Here is the input.
Amino acid sequence: MSLEDRANATAKNIEGKTKQAMGEMTGDPKQKGEGKAKQTEAQVQHTVEDVKDEAKKKLD
Here is the structure.
């Protein structure tokens, strides 16, 4: 597990949530969609890190 990768994914998730909220407040569907996309990307990054962690546990 890379702590840095997890931190980056968490930051991306927060950025996405903020962007989505701003899109909802301003009525900007593009910004809202971009926020959701960033959150999905962060979820994928977390999943990749989870898989890495599991693989490392099995190898140890």
User: Anything to note?
Assistant: The CA atoms of residues 1 and 53 lie 5 Å apart. Helices lie at 3-26, 29-59.
